[in-house]
Input
Amino acid sequence: MHTIKLALISILTAVCLGIQLLPRPMNLEFTSLISFVTGMVFGCLFGAGLGTLVMFVNGFLSSYGPAGVLLPFQIVGMIIIGIVGGLYGKMASGKLSRGNFWEIVVLGAFLTFIYDVVTNVGTAVSLASSMPFHQALLAVLVTGAIPSIMHVAWNCVLFGAVTVPLVNAMQKAVVWR
Amino acid sequence: MSMQRRTLLFAVLGLLTWGLLASLAAVYYYYSYNDLLTKIQKPIVLINIGIDYGNGVPAKWFNQTRITAGSTLLNATMLVADVEYTVWPGSGAFVDSIDNVTNSGSYYWLWWMHTTYGWSQGQVASDRYIVGDNETYYWYYEDTSTFPAPSPP
Output
């Protein structure tokens, strides 16, 4: 691997971990964006790998406490985002234009929703010891609706505002090498 | 993939996300509205509040506490104990201490409610939960280094 690629991935991972571990309002996160962008520029494996690593460390050191049973669900959610980022990167192939803006906003919203559903299933699993699983899942999905809308709205803005310039800048840096 | 198909794919994805989120939000507000209607039928409600300071001593109970309908669990707790809290925008009140027992290390104040399935951990901040008649709550100062946190004894 080229040194510049390695350096870029290391910086992205460090930035992502740093932000993820900072005390911040729940659901206002950058990990999904960085996993997606890494997937787009470096491929599915790197996007999913970065997401896995960040969520794994977050699972033990998060300011919200340990993730416990939720950890594998958080990792799976982030792997999906990294892989879709990689697939979209192949689909877009080359410099992103204004035409990609809406596609990225839609993907950001959809993937955030999928991530929330996957982690809500994890929460329902953790509650299933004290109530039937289907009731726990329904309760978690319904009570999680408003935080999920906030999460999706945040990621729509973030993916829309940052992805195109960030991916173009990263591709320029990698190609320049 | 042709441009037309691609546009259609993203339009469908966008509408699907919007539709699912809107449906969940509608169910949430429908449930919350009906729940609130039930809880404000009487002007005064009676609730039970237990406070466990995590020191091995049995919880202090405030049974049949009278409070105005529509009050939150935080309001109710402040009637029976000294509570300090911080309001986090978007998330609600985070209880920092009860009766001078302050969050420290992995020990935090969590609230629980007794349901037909046993103790259930509060899913929202205590200032976002409207108390209901004859409900039983438990403030537990406990080690949160495991997930899910241990339920009250």
Q: What stands out?
A: The CA atoms of residues 96 and 102 of chain B lie 6 Å apart. Chain B has a mean pLDDT of 92. The radius of gyration of chain B is 20 Å. Chain B is about 30% helix and 35% strand.
